[in-house]
Amino acid sequence: MRSAPPDLPELPNSVYQLVDYGNGRKLEEFSGVLVDRPSPVAVGAPVTKLWHRADGRFDLQENHRGVWAWERKLGAWQLATPFGQMELFPTDFGHLGVFAEQLTHWKWLTTLPLAGVRLLNLFAYTGGASLAAAKAGATVTHVDSAKNMVRRASHNAHISQLADRPIRWIVEDALKFVTRESRRGNQYDGIILDPPTYGHGVSGKSIWKIDEQLPELFQRLREIVPLCRLMLYTCHSRGFTPAFMKQNIAGFRVREKSQSGPMFLQATDGRKLASGNFVRWFQS
Q: Per-residue pLDDT for 263 more than 70?
């Protein structure tokens, strides 16, 4: 297996790497499996000749869905992370259950003294941030509108030896849950969220649109997080620059300066592939 790039010392145990990108696609290695997927921001030309060795290729069709073509049958397939293991699985959206640009944030979470800190993780997907925070001692409420993703997150806790940590698994729309928590008078010490641009809710009828609903979500969050000791806010939506994202969260009471900037995946030749933006801080 090829080793991780030496210029990513913060992830010494990762078995993910971006092998190459270009012509609107990216070639990635997940635990020894080469995957060729679309990437609209992958401009320029590829630089390696390894593309023909891909084990799996995903091609988009209609409605942002597509099909996978595999050269070999995969059995149990997991990715090593800063907190343990995550199960990989191909979806008809071209995802694999892990967004690799989040690995550095998960590593950051595991280094923080989070014992006794109550965190709310919204749009929590398959649990990477929840498990990283739980490993560091936090009490986590994990919220996602997709029941199957919450089930996978719980499974990831099990295979990472974190099933006994204080994590609440909630299947609910983020805005509805936060609104109810405000009515109940429940409070948290920090927030983790990676809001999508667009998505369906629990019922399949309610629809999340980031431009329309994110301002209200942050308003409600300010009601249940009186002093925000931890913020990890990442986003991939067009126009959500670090400066704009900092404006989104300007109303939170904090005592620490925030870190912010672009997220990226670094290819083995040193080139960087844009992968969204982030804002984060922690108050000990």
A: yes
